[in-house]
Structure formats: C-alpha cells, structure tokens
From TrEMBL:
Cited PANTHER family: PROTEIN PIN-LIKES 1, PTHR31651
Family according to the record: Belongs to the auxin efflux carrier (TC 2.A.69.2) family.
Membrane spanning residue stretches: 6-29, 73-94, 106-127, 147-168, 257-278, 298-316, 328-349, 389-410
The species this protein was found in: Morus notabilis
Record's protein name: Uncharacterized transporter
GO biological process: auxin-activated signaling pathway; endoplasmic reticulum to cytosol auxin transport
Domain of life, source organism: Eukaryota
UniProt function note: Involved in cellular auxin homeostasis by regulating auxin metabolism. Regulates intracellular auxin accumulation at the endoplasmic reticulum and thus auxin availability for nuclear auxin signaling.
Residues covered by region (Disordered): 190-217
Length: 411
C-alpha cells in the first residue's frame, strides 16, 4: 500500500510536465499558429538571458550558506558521473546499431546530456506539496528543493558546454572531413553549402537554454579554418610561446561558451548567500534592498512554464521528422531510462556508504533523479526531432516509475 501511495504522489508532478508540454505542442501546430518557431526562439531568448539567471540566482541566494555547502559538494561530482556514464552508454549504442557517421554525435549527446533543469524544477516543488511526500515540512522542502534543482540546472549547463559541447564539435568536424573525403565538391558548392553544415547542430530549447541569438554560425565548428590550420602547422611547435598555445587551447575549447547567463546567476547566488553583509542587505523581510531579491524571484517564476511550453513546441518537429533507424531510438531509451537510473542507484549507495552524501532524503532523491531525466540535447533536424519526440513521450512513464522507486529507497 505504501508503494501505491508513493506511485500516486510521483505521478502528479509528471502529469504536470505532460500537460504543459502537450499544451506547448498544441499551440505550435500549424493549424493553431499561436506558438510558431519564431515565437519560440524569441521567448527562448528572454528565458535564456532573463528568466534563467534570475531563477538560479534568487533560489541559491535564499538557501546557500557555508553549512549547506557541506551538503552540496557531491552534486557536481554526481552530475559529472551521469554525463560520463551516459557517454559510455551512447558509445555502446553506436557500436551495436552502427549508425551513419553524422548520427554518432547526436547519439552521444542525447545519451550523455540530461535535462537537469526544467524537469527537476517542476517535479521537486510539486512532490514537496503532495500529502504523501516523504520529505517532511512542505515549506522547508520547497525552499531547499528549489535550491537543489537550480544548482543542478547551473551545473548541468556548465558540463553541457565544457563536455558534451566539445564532443559534438569534434563529431561535427569529423563528419565534415568524411563528407569532403567521400563526396568532393567544387569550391563554389562548398561555400554555398557551408552555412548548412555550420548551422546543422543546435541545442534543445530546454532548461539549459544554451541558444545565444546572433551567434549560431560557428558554435559547433572548430575555430581554425583550413588556411589558419595550415598557417599554424607551418610554425614549428617549439617556436610557439606559452601565451600563444594557451590562446589556441581557449579557442578550441571555446571557454567563452561557459559564461552562460545561468552560470553568472549561479555565481551571483553563491556570492549573496556566502557573504553575510550582502545577504543581510538583500535576503529577509527586514532587508533594506529586499525588493531586488523579490523582483528576481518574480522573474524566475516565469522560467518554468515558459521552458516547458518551449519544449512542447519543439517536439512538434518530431511529427514532421523523417524516419530513422528504430534500433537507435530503442538504444537511447534503454540507455537513459533503464541502465542509467539503475547505475545511479549504485552510485548513490556507494557515496552514502563512504560518507560522501549525508542522510537527507530530499537531497538523495535529487541526486538519483539526475540519472533518470530525459535528454537535453538537440543536435540536428529531423533525426533528432524524432528522438526527442519518443524520449519525451516515454518520459512520463519512466519518470513516474523511477520517482516511485527513488522515494521508496530514500524514505
């Protein structure tokens, strides 16, 4: 009977995600025309630069203290493990399915990158308010749950840029070399096709919200052109200074991409929370500048419904997408919804055994849920839309099941 009660509790937040996502998909249909692609891009720009950093910064500022840092230190490690294990599972899917060259980066990205923001920001607060929740006082649960979810979104964004981003870039570059080697074209044809090659990979408009308007042309293209590469190669490596080598490394890794607005919001939230003088000025009913914190919280509240509607709208692309190898879809679903959550349980059990994670049921639940969220990467056109459609359609079943299991484990 207890399991049944946990199942009902776990199904409520998942139904919320499903309803809002379905609404976004309906509004994006051509015959409805309320939420077309241009509207989604403009709304995503506002979410990326305004809503996301406000949400992350305000929630972290409310809860982060020196004491809470002791509890949160394992979360970046946990998310990194989820990314690495997901990458390994993606590689296994590639070895089994033998996909086309241009799909390999897509499979790796979808297997490695999880939606650590929107899903958690809806599921955790809703679970806190449910009557059968095992997480104690609803208000305390809500406050800390939002902080855990916001930090999860920020860390996931950093890893997405620094880890998955470069995997995709390398894959995209090798794909171009494959095209140039096997399908040589004239110089004019190369130049005319270059924008399509460079713009064929883009992130999903999701919680991480990594789309930067006006800077799409070279995001997933290695920074050196062919002529630049020949010029660099002409200079002996021994003659290159340390500064020059560092510049080359920065350009290849594109460290500028790490400075996303959500990352900035994370830094601001930590500074406010950890510096007592600033915290007393901004946080609390008696703080003289509390209106700034209240305004940031108000803006942040708009992020969750906006992001979920955008995801729903983008899933419509999957209905129009071309068919693709079914084994690839099945492989990604098994990797993300079966193997990865099971391995996440083993990771948490090991961390608890060695004293790396404290016995806070809510915190442990968030760490477990990070292994069960749907993909957050959209790195193509029709093929990726089909993958996103199926993975998010099945996410309602998977998240309900694993949320029930996770709550039973930590309760």
């Amino acid at each position: 009977m207890k399991i049944l009660g946990l199942f009902v509790t776990a199904s409520i937040p998942v139904l919320k995600v499903l309803l809002i996502t379905t609404l976004g998909s309906y509004l994006a249909l051509d015959r409805v025309g309320i939420f077309p692609e241009d509207a989604r891009k403009h709304l995503n720009t506002v979410v990326f630069y305004v809503f996301n950093p406000a949400l992350v910064g305000s929630n972290l500022a409310n809860t982060i203290t020196y004491q809470s840092m002791i509890t949160l230190w394992f979360m970046p490690v946990n998310i990194l493990i989820a990314y690495i294990v997901g990458s390994i599972l993606g590689w296994i899917v590639i070895q089994i399915t033998r996909p086309s060259q241009h799909l390999r980066g897509l499979i790796l990205g979808c297997s490695a990158a999880g939606n650590f923001g929107t899903i958690l920001l809806i599921i955790i607060p809703t679970l806190c308010k449910e009557r059968g929740s095992p997480f104690g006082d609803p208000d305390v649960c809500y406050t800390y749950g939002m902080a855990y979810s916001s930090l999860s979104m920020a860390i996931g964004s950093i890893y997405l840029w620094s880890y998955v981003y470069n995997i995709v870039r390398i894959s995209a570059t090798s794909d171009k070399e494959f095209i140039r080697k096997d399908f040589p074209v004239s110089k004019a044809a190369k130049e005319s096709s270059r924008p399509d090659l460079e713009g064929s990979i883009e992130p999903l408009l999701s919680s991480t919200e990594l789309e930067e308007p006006g800077d799409n042309s070279d995001r997933y293209v290695l920074p050196l052109t062919a002529s630049e590469g020949r010029a660099e190669a002409a200079v002996p490596e021994s003659h290159l200074g340390i500064t020059h080598r560092f510049r080359m490394l920065v350009r290849k890794l594109n460290l500028k991409a790490l400075l996303a607005p959500s990352t900035t919001g994370t830094v601001v939230g930590f500074v406010i929370g950890l510096v007592p003088q600033i915290r007393k000025t901004l946080i609390g009913t008696g703080a003289p500048l509390r209106v700034i914190q209240d305004s940031a919280s108000l803006l942040g509240d708009g992020a969750i419904p906006a992001l979920t509607l955008i995801i729903g709208g983008n899933l419509v692309k999957g209905l129009k997408g071309a068919g693709m190898q079914k084994s690839i879809i099945v492989g990604i679903i098994v990797a993300r919804y079966v193997v990865l959550p099971f391995l996440g349980i083993l990771v948490l059990k090991g961390a608890v055994h060695f004293g790396m994670v404290q016995s806070d049921p809510l915190y442990q639940f968030v760490l477990l849920l990070q292994f069960a969220v749907p993909p957050a990467m959209n790195m193509g056109e029709s093929e990726c839309s089909v993958i996103m459609l199926w993975t998010y359609a099945l996410a309602s079943i998977s998240l309900t099941f694993w949320s029930t299991v996770f709550m039973w484990l930590v309760a």
